Amino acid sequence: MPIVVFNQKGGVGKSTITCNLAAISAHQGLRTLVVDLDPQGNSTHYLLGEAADEPPASLAEFFDQTLKFTARPKSTADFVVASPFDNLHVMPSSPALDELHAKLESRYKIYKLREALDELADDYDRIYIDTPPALNFYTRSALIAANGCLIPFDCDDFSRRALYALLENVQEIQADHNDQLEVKGIVVNQFQPRANLPQQLVQELIDEGLPVLQPYLSASVKIKESHQQSKPMVHLDARHKVTTEFVALHEALGALNDSPTSKSRSRGRV
Ligand SMILES: Nc1ncnc2c1ncn2[C@@H]1O[C@H](COP(=O)(O)OP(=O)(O)OP(=O)(O)O)[C@@H](O)[C@H]1O
Ligand SMILES: [Mg+2]
């Protein structure tokens, strides 16, 4: 069930897409968890606001526990924090994730996140994982733990070129560690319909048979306001154009999940 939002490139919209899709799931009554694997903690701040500075539990504590012998280990649910929004929980990030990274990698803890999320599978209807802009221990852990992968694309030529290497990385994880992992699709973000270049770049992806999801997400300053107020779009402005795009994207993903012919609904295959 877990969906990872992944792109090694920074600033393409991973955290924005993770949190807004999760907020919509929760708003629709689905029990929803966001796992924030990025030491920058942007999703944690977006969903928890000021409480993100000192969350009562964190993912860093979870990973730290995997490195130690503890007579009475905490269960995975103890590392989950409720957000101010109904049905929406977070496994918060903290800067300590940065310090733990090398130790976790050298001690082969790459399957720990998958085990933890398996434990929580009955408690949640949707799990979204936000990842840092890198291919490192945390992103690999997430790709191993997930069933679905969303790839944000910011309509930039460098991003288009980087997509092929990215998809190869995903395929390598599929082959070596996780045959359940499926690329759900590419999410076009900050799309400007009046400019020629974004149209052309997205068309190239479609022509190459890549699974580009609909609808595309528009660029809007309201998103920055939404971050600043720690209120996902569905709570800040339910009627805003970008909110309706997120809701439609959420619905498209739900249809992909429910349909046995899932891949044929997105444009093309990977
Ligand atoms: N559709 C959008 N319209 C306007 N601004 C956007 C949109 N999507 C994202 N942004 C802005 O772009 C910036 C990067 O977004 P975000 O933090 O979600 O990307 P990211 O891929 O998670 O970044 P990082 O790789 O650093 O984790 C933020 O300032 C955000 O407000
Ligand atoms: Mg981010």
TrEMBL record:
Gene source species: mine drainage metagenome
Lineage of origin: unclassified sequences, metagenomes, ecological metagenomes
Signal peptide bounds: none
CDD domains found in the cross-reference section: ParAB_family
Residues spanning the membrane: none
The protein, known as: Sporulation initiation inhibitor protein Soj
GO molecular function: hydrolase activity
Keyword check for Protein transport: no
PANTHER family, alphabetized: P-LOOP CONTAINING NUCLEOSIDE TRIPHOSPHATE HYDROLASE, PARA FAMILY PROTEIN CT_582
Record domain AAA: where: 3-183
UniProt EC number: 3.6.-.-
Key words of the record: Hydrolase
